[in-house]
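Moderator note: this is an archived Q&A kept for reference. The question asked for a predicted structure of one protein chain; the sequence and the answer are reproduced below.
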Amino acid sequence: MADRGDPPGDLAKSLGHRFAKPELLALALIHPSATKRQGRDPHGYERLEFLGDRVLGVIVAEMLWRRFPDADEGELTRRHVALVRREALADVARKIGLGQHMTASSDAAMRDNPGVLADLCEAVIAALYIDGGLEAAQRFVEKNWGELLDRVKGPPADPKTALQEWAQARGLKLPAYRTLETKGPAHDRRFTVSVSVEGLPDATASGTTKRAAEAAAAAAALASIDSRP
């Protein structure tokens, strides 16, 4: 196994996948701070983060759809926001000791940084997806996020309330929602809504009701807060 550049045994067990291209995992474990120090292009890691975020979102959405067959769109959206937030990603990364395998410019200081751990987890999910397809990524996510699903006894706080509280805590004006588009017949409407908050880029989302669209837009705004350095 060592000849193939496979990850250490504890990490391989946590990931549940044997890499055909171990260089993908190696790339996911090298933080941009280290690649810059070595004079290497950091964009490979950042591209993995981008992809891993989307892969995680799809897998978690399906898990919720199956686990909560009676939940409406608003509840599913609230649960989804809680499960793909940086806190959840960082918790998973800590649980499997992912930070111990990371290379960074200052390993000791960064190994327990929630933002760094969340990015690292996303990059690893992308590496699993590219190397082993959706099945490899799904095995990892279902194993590690399944416990988080069970831990949530009820729907998390409404994203609109959470966004309002975030703005109020900073002395900002309340979020402003605007309906951009309404499409479809009365029995099959689709609303597109944007939300504006001072200091954040406008976030846009759609839903089958205006309320669901506003909740999704608020969730997107909260996600943009989490993704800031």
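Archived answer notes: Residues 1-5 have pLDDT under 50 and may be disordered.
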